[in-house]
Amino acid sequence: MATLSDLVTALAGVTGLPEATVFAYGRFARQAGLISQKGRGRSAASMSVADAANLLIAVGATDVTREAGTAIKNFRTLERGRLYDFSPGLSPPILPWLEPLGVKPLRPRDSAFKVRSNFGSFFEHLIIGTVTGSLSSVFRRIPVAEIPKELWSKWKRSKSIHLDESMELLVEKGLVKPKAPSELEFGEDISLEVNFSRLVPAVDIEFRRMCDSPQTGFLIPFGPERGAQSRAPHNMRLIATVTQHTLAGVGLVQADMVRAAAIRSYKPMDALFAQQFRRTAPNSTRETADAKRG
User: Fold this and answer.
1) Strands across the sheet with 190-197, in order?
2) How far apart are CA 117 and CA 203, in angstroms?
3) Which one has a higher pLDDT value, 224 or 92?
4) Are residues 124 and 89 in the same domain?
5) CA of 254: how far to CAs of 10, 49, 75, 128, 281, in Å?
6) In terms of domains, do 119 and 98 share one?
7) End position of a domain, from candidates 241, 259, 280
8) pLDDT for 59-76, tens place per residue?
């Protein structure tokens, strides 16, 4: 059973924030009724995925701990979610993953889709998917490739037409070989970024890949509800970003799969991802189990 104290330790460990600061976020969120509360010590409330999501939202959405409750309410209710596919043909891997949240094309034969759920529901789905491997299953189907230096130099000398072709086309033609799914690594070949815009409540979720250079394969933004009044116009952006490692660290602890103190080393998250991508990684599985026991 994971408690609020466990989530605080895990989130502090993976973000580098002081535990006292993360605890303050949790305390104010709990006072607002947005994190479960029941006794102390062994009788403390068991944390749900919604509790974990709310603590993460508070940390990402504001730098003022006493505003945690307001920030969670403002960000959880963000709607107008959209999915934008920036690489033709990449939609099939992600659409089934989004299906439980409700997704439909904005227009026929369009590469943009509407996500029916609000950000709160999406964020919980994202945390669960990071731990269960459903998120990795999306990334496993996204081609990741780089043009070898020798081939690039050859094409450049000859001013080859291939220099202007998309990576998908180069892979389709067999000119460039994509990485095998078992070789993919989060943070190197692929990554997920959840970007919280603090001044005007909004969130951008980027599915990124290395395709000769870093690229955004998918973008899922959430904005204020229709008719909501935004703050005065400004020229400044304050963005807080969390990645797949933050989601996995908090998710593993919430699911009672790993000790909170073990998250600081990043080993449980790396072991989890290795297992998800390689499918056969006994050492990784053992590391995760050891982190739970130890």
Assistant:
1) 103-105, 112-115, 81-85, 214-222, 202-210, 190-197, 239-243
2) 14
3) 92
4) yes
5) 9, 7, 21, 10, 23
6) yes
7) 241
8) 999 999 999 999 999 999
Cα–Cα distance measured from residue 178 to residue 165, given in angstroms and rounded to the nearest whole number: 15
- Cα–Cα distance for residue pair 162/169, rounded to 1 Å: 9
pTM of the model: 0.86
- Tens digit of pLDDT for each residue in 115-148? 999 999 999 999 999 999 999 999 998 888 888 8
Same domain, 172 and 186: no
Q: Position of tokens 């020798």?
A: 150
CA distance 187 to 136: 13
Question: What pLDDT was estimated at residue 228?
Answer: 47
Give domain status of residue 22, yes or no: no
Strand (E) positions, the chain? 81-85, 103-105, 112-115, 190-197, 202-210, 214-222, 239-243
202 inside domain:
yes
Structural domain harbouring 162:
145-178
